[in-house]
Amino acid sequence: MSTHTDATTTVPAPREGGASASRKPTAAQRFGDGGGILNVFSHGFLVLWAVMIIGPLIWIVLGSFKSNAQIGGSAWSWPTSWHFDAFSRAWDKGIGGFFANTLIVLAGSLTLTMLLGAMAAYVLARYEFRGNRTIYYFFVAGAMFPVYLALVPLFFMVKNLGQISPLLGLNSYLGLILVYTAYSLPFTVFFLYAFFRSLPTAVHEAAMIDGCSHTRAFFQVMVPMAKSGLISVFIFNVLGQWNQYLLPVTLMQQQSGSDPDRSMLAQGLMNLAVQSGYASDFPGLFAGMTIAMLPVLVVYLSFQKQVQAGLTSATLK
Amino acid sequence: MRHKKYPFIVGFLIVPVALYVLLVIWPYVQTFGYSLTDWSGASQQMNFIGLRNYTSLFGDSVFVTALEHNLLLLIVLPLATILLALFFAFMLNVGGRGGTGGVKGVRGAGFYKVVFFFPQVLSVAILSVLFQGVYRTDQGGLLNGVLVKLGLEDPNKPLQWLADPNWGLWCVIGVLIWSGVGFYLVLFSAAMQAVPKDIYEAALLDGAGRGQTFFKITLPLLWETIQTAWVYLAIAAMDCFALVSTMTPGSYYGGGPDHHSEILATLLMRNFITYGKAGYACAMGVVIFFITLILSVISLRVTRREQIEF
């Protein structure tokens, strides 16, 4: 409830007992049950934190319309003219291409992660066979190791894969897709394992009696039933892979001058930051950031309930 | 039905397991092996040198500094993030009290949750570039701009933020807290909403104040969630590579000025990619692994309490 209602309608409640009795009458009148002070206090902090989150983001968007001199001169200047040329400069420097690279890799790695993760989790959760527990613990163990532990050998592993086919090696889409998938599997399997276990067996059994094959039962009965769990893990993986920085920096460097630039968005933005720093094109950099932020903001605002619920349940399992 | 079971199981498991073993398990195992060699990474040649990489690690003053910074992060990051997130979550869910004794969140709780959570979906590169702007050392920087505007700072002697040896690491910690609080707020909110309202109402009737409700009801009931959050934040504190390497000064993977914000991850990458000391870098990876392992075990032990059923 708002502070106003608290202050005017709340009768000093018995719960405050001794404290309100010792307080001066004027203070008691002004703040009712004492919750009033706390409410102003807590609202103050909440508003302050909200401003701290939104402020810098708006500042960046405004910055993309300013001139270079304006950005350096004062943080508080308002853009004098609303030009969009910084946006086209940022786009020309490759933001569009980095976006495309990221989308290609994420489309591949998310499809593979969900498909392979669900398949493995399903078999481990619902079928008894020798080695079942071993394979499960194998997957679970991977979830807690830091990726640094694997980094050096992983680099050479991907490099060697490139000798089998350049499509798989360093600075290749498929190589990064496979790496993302492999590192997303432990958590995906761990989470979906618990989820498939919790599903009722009756529907599945009915399908099997009707002559459904194991594969068909999985795709047409179990996957639809596990939809909510799959969505949670999917969101978790989207954010995890979207925010990935270390793996692309290590694995997606151009190997020679003639190599195509397949930087992910995060990498590309950092390169743009370095270039803009040298070229003093801060409006261009801020415009690049705005371009990179907008789709995320739109998707987040449209699905914020699912994103929050998905991430929370995925973490708590 | 039974005769086709095994081909099905093998068919479903073979690709995920093969991929996982090839790209995750096998590199993990190899790291332990390489950490015992003087391998440069560039050539095929390597010699077994036993534990010499590990002994030189602890004689390396930069490594010890980096380790200290990681330990500092391990304490400050979870503590600050969890305290702030708990405070906000309590305000949003139980903070507002209706006149009739009901328990409610403050007005606009949904809005705050949406706003606070947003940094979580921003890519780390955006965070990095954003805060390079915020921490700019001239008046164009958001923080210096605010401080000058408020008259708290002399415009001719602006604060150096990231370039200041004493402040650099704290600036990065600030960004980590800024972006992390929203997520843990939502996490704790979900846990708080699972607590039946009548527990709070009963406490109110018994004369409990806000502080008492928080410490006697909310905190114990949320203990398990806090423990989970602690482990996640501890793992995050061992990482931080992206932010430190891109925000702090220093030519190869940041860590400056003069190693004042060095962490294990940046040191590992510099030794591997720049200096070509792959074996040495692997030894660092192993150290990071053991610290993470010990931490998870300790935090699970220390925070273990009697489960409260509700």
From TrEMBL, chain A:
The chain crosses the membrane at residues 40-62, 98-124, 136-158, 170-196, 217-239, 282-303. One of its GO terms (biological process) is transmembrane transport. It comes from the Bacteria. Residues 1-27 are annotated as: Disordered. Keywords: Cell membrane, Membrane, Transmembrane, Transmembrane helix, Transport. One of its GO terms (cellular component) is plasma membrane. The keyword Transcription regulation does not apply. It is found in: Cell membrane. It is a multi-pass membrane protein. Pfam families: BPD_transp_1. Belongs to the binding-protein-dependent transport system permease family. This is N-acetylglucosamine transport system permease protein. It comes from Kitasatospora viridis.
UniProtKB/TrEMBL annotation, chain B:
The chain crosses the membrane at residues 7-29, 71-94, 114-135, 167-187, 229-248, 278-300. One of its GO terms (cellular component) is plasma membrane. The keyword Cell membrane applies. It is a multi-pass membrane protein. Its main location: membrane. Keywords: Cell membrane, Membrane, Transmembrane, Transmembrane helix, Transport. SUPFAM superfamilies: MetI-like. It is found in: Cell membrane. The keyword Cytoplasm does not apply. GO terms for biological process: transmembrane transport. Coiled coil: none annotated. Residues 67-299 form the ABC transmembrane type-1 domain. InterPro entries: ABC_transporter_permease, MetI-like, MetI-like_sf. Belongs to the binding-protein-dependent transport system permease family. PANTHER family: ABC TRANSPORTER PERMEASE PROTEIN, DIACETYLCHITOBIOSE UPTAKE SYSTEM PERMEASE PROTEIN NGCF. This is Carbohydrate ABC transporter membrane protein 1 (CUT1 family).
